[in-house]
Amino acid sequence: MGEVGDGFIQAMKILDGGRISIAALGLGIATGAYEASLAYSKEREQFGQPISRFQAIGFKLADMATKIEAGSLLTYQAADLKNRGEKVTKESAIAKYYTSEISVQISTDAVQVFGGYGYTKEFPVEKFYRDSKLCTIGEGTSEIQKLVIAREILK
Ligand SMILES: Cc1cc2nc3c(=O)[nH]c(=O)nc-3n(C[C@H](O)[C@H](O)[C@H](O)COP(=O)(O)OP(=O)(O)OC[C@H]3O[C@@H](n4cnc5c(N)ncnc54)[C@H](O)[C@@H]3O)c2cc1C
């Protein structure tokens, strides 16, 4: 339990670690949405060709892949610091903020790639779309992550 009077500091340290878990959660949702979009875009044909051949779809997939790689590096960086016993207040907030926001962006784009089918329960992307939003709220909202990051960089 620690010392009397240290509760707030301990709670903040636990949140630093928890935020890495939410970053990983957001990254997993984003990756699932991306992989489903990639596979579907190669299968679904419109105007006589797979929709992956349309630049509008290819650009969405490129944005998804780029954001996932960046989010992955931020999450592993925060996890690595935590494993080494370093302070991770800023890094965990950055990883959590970035991955949760891209999770919402990517799952929203995934529904778009699936078109009308994206809105149905026949495919997983509608669930990614709903679940991703939690990541921008739980363990501190995106606004609170920005407060934490600003406080850390303005010290
Ligand atoms: C599915 C789900 C599971 C959850 N699980 C848990 C759990 O297991 N344990 C737990 O303890 N909590 C849990 N939560 C609660 C979660 O941590 C809170 O919902 C979250 O921290 C936001 O707090 P709030 O809902 O009171 O929103 P509020 O604090 O009322 O925020 C409302 C809005 O105001 C903004 N805001 C608030 N304060 C500021 C500020 N100072 N500056 C700028 N903007 C601000 C917020 O960013 C948000 O946009 C869960 C929430 C959800 C949705």
Quick summary of this structure?
The chain is mostly helical. The chain contains five helices and two strands; from the N terminus they run H-E-E-H-H-H-H. A hairpin with a 2-residue loop joins strand 1 and strand 2.
Describe the overall structure:
By secondary structure, the chain is mainly α. It has a single domain, classed as Butyryl-CoA Dehydrogenase, subunit A, domain 3 (Up-down Bundle), CATH 1.20.140. Helix content is about 75%, strand content about 5%. A two-stranded antiparallel ribbon has the order 1-2. Strand 1 and strand 2 form a beta hairpin. Helix 1 packs antiparallel against helix 4. The radius of gyration is 18 Å and the shape is elongated. Bound molecules: flavin-adenine dinucleotide. The site of flavin-adenine dinucleotide has 9 residues, from helix 5.
The domain count comes to 1
Uncertain spans:
none
**Alpha plus pi helix count:** 5
Annotated CATH topology? Butyryl-CoA Dehydrogenase, subunit A, domain 3
User: What is the CATH homologous superfamily assignment?
Assistant: Butyryl-CoA Dehydrogenase, subunit A, domain 3
- In round numbers, the mean pLDDT is 96
What summary fits the major beta sheet?
2 strands, antiparallel
Task: Write down the Rg.
Answer: 18 Å
* Structural classification: mainly alpha
The top-level CATH class is Mainly Alpha
Helix content: over 70%
Number-wise, the strands total 2
